[in-house]
Amino acid sequence: MIPATPTLQNYLDIWQSAPMALWMGNTILVTVLASLAVTFSSSLVAWGFAYYRFPGRDALFFLILATMMLPGVVTLIPTYLIWDALGQVGTLTPLWAQNLFGSAFYIFLIRQFFLGLPRQVFEAARVDGASDWRLYWNFALPLCKPAIVVTLVFETQAAWTDLMRPLIYLRDETTFTIPRGLKAWWISLVLRATGIGS
C-alpha cells in the first residue's frame, strides 16, 4: 500500500507521453456544459411541476420518476442511433447535450425543494406584476441555492469521471476526455509491453 520510494514521476511520465492538456481541456468543456445544462433544464422542469397546477400533473411526474427505474444500458443503442443519425458520433456533443432534457433524479430533488418554499411569496410577486419567467429566475432559483449547488456538484463529479459515453461516442484521440484517454493510453502501454502492439 505504501511505496518504498514515494515519487511523482508517474504523473510526469503520463503528461509527457500523452496529450493530457488536450484531454483535460475536453473534460473541462464537457463537464461545465453538462453540469450547467442539466441544472438549468432540471430546475426549469421542477419549477413547472412544483408551482403550476394542471390536469395530469401527478401522472406526468410519476412517468418522469419511472424513467429512473430504467437502466442506462437499455437506452444505450437507441440513443447511439439518434446521435449517429444527427451526425454527432465522434464529437463531444453527445457527452453533454442529452443533459438539456433534464434528469429525473435532479428534477425530483429540486421539485421537493421548491415545494418547501412558501407559495405566498410567489403569489405576492404575481400581484406585483411579475411574469412567469421572473418568478422562476428572480424568486425561485435564488431561494433554492442549496438544491442547485447539490445538482451542480453531483453532475460535475458524474461528467468528470464518465467513461462509458466517451468509450461509445469518441473515436479520435483529439476528442478524448481524461477517462477515455487514460484508458486508451493504458491499453496501448500494456499491448506494447506484451509485444502484441508492435
By CATH reckoning, the class of the domain at 27-82 and 102-182 would read Mainly Alpha
Total of helices:
11
Q: Please tally the β strands and state the result.
A: 0
> What oligomerization state is this entry in?
single chain
Overall mean pLDDT: 92
> Ends: how far apart?
33 Å
Beta percentage is: under 5%
What structural category do the secondary elements indicate?
A: mainly alpha
How would you describe this structure to a colleague?
With 198 residues, this protein is mostly helical. The protein has a domain of 137 residues: MetI-like (MetI-like fold). It is 70% helix and 0% strand. It contains 11 helices and no strands. α7 runs antiparallel to α8. It starts with 8 loop residues before the first helix and ends with a helix. The model has no long low-confidence stretch (mean pLDDT 92).
